[in-house]
Amino acid sequence: MIVPRWMRIVFLANLVAQTAIVVTGAVVRLTGSGLGCPTWPECVEGSYVPVARQAEAWHKYVEFGNRLLTFAVGIIAIVTVIAAVTYTVRRARAGQSRRPSILWLGIAPLLGTVAQAVLGGITVLTGLNPATVGLHFLVSIALIAAAVALVARSRDAGDQPITYFVRKEVRLYTWALIAVTGLVVILGVVTTGSGPHSGDSDSELRFPFDPRTVAWLHADVVLLFIGMLIGYMILLRVTSAPSRVWRNTLILVAITLVQAAVGYTQYFTGLPVLAVTVHVTLACLLWVTVLFLPSTLRERGATG
Length: 304
Hints:
Layout: H1 5-30, H2 59-93, H3 100-125, H4 130-154, E1 162-164, H5 168-194, H6 211-238, H7 243-268, H8 273-296, E2 298-300
Antiparallel strand pairs: 1-2
């Protein structure tokens, strides 16, 4: 029993939502609106919504908008759980394996959303400490990874057997590329946390690192990633990898080129908010794209 179309749409919506909340969270930080709602879970003491008497001006609406999106993400997460459980029950009633991968990946968004809500509260109550802000982001990219895995697995007919279309060397290199991409993203968080975008217009909390040094380190790892990506294409070529692998790889190359241009532009133009927002958005797309690579290397449940 394959995953019904409506369930696949729900899983895709979950991926979009988990990615969008990262971008809107970045907008909150980049516009200095991190404490637009200075308390939690209320926006201001005595009210869950912004009020006219607040001193945070328009920042309160930016932060409150992000909180509203968090509720939307939570609703989608609940629907995702319902879809995953429904699919598991249907397979059990049909006498088929329950595919625990779908079930657990379907539950992950709801658990992650709850964890993010708690982390968000801690972040506000600690005055946007960069450590909690960074952890908030890292949980988000983990949730994106789970969402990608859920979408990929929902396209499979089952979990077993697994048929690979490429050599083992390609599969290992793919995971190495993913690991380096993750390092690029993490260093990007550290770089932002060390720079001027602390998350609130009145907050001076930052990581105790020299912004230029961290930016150089981040750029060095990006160059490593680009080198590995070039090596990946050569490996795909010499091993005659199928077109399905090449399609995803070429999309990854395109995003990388645009991201590199935006990255250097924002660095040499003083980190304008719009450029950094685009940079964060492209980083999310890069992460999503590279995470889809493993699913293009194999087929699951073709005879199950």
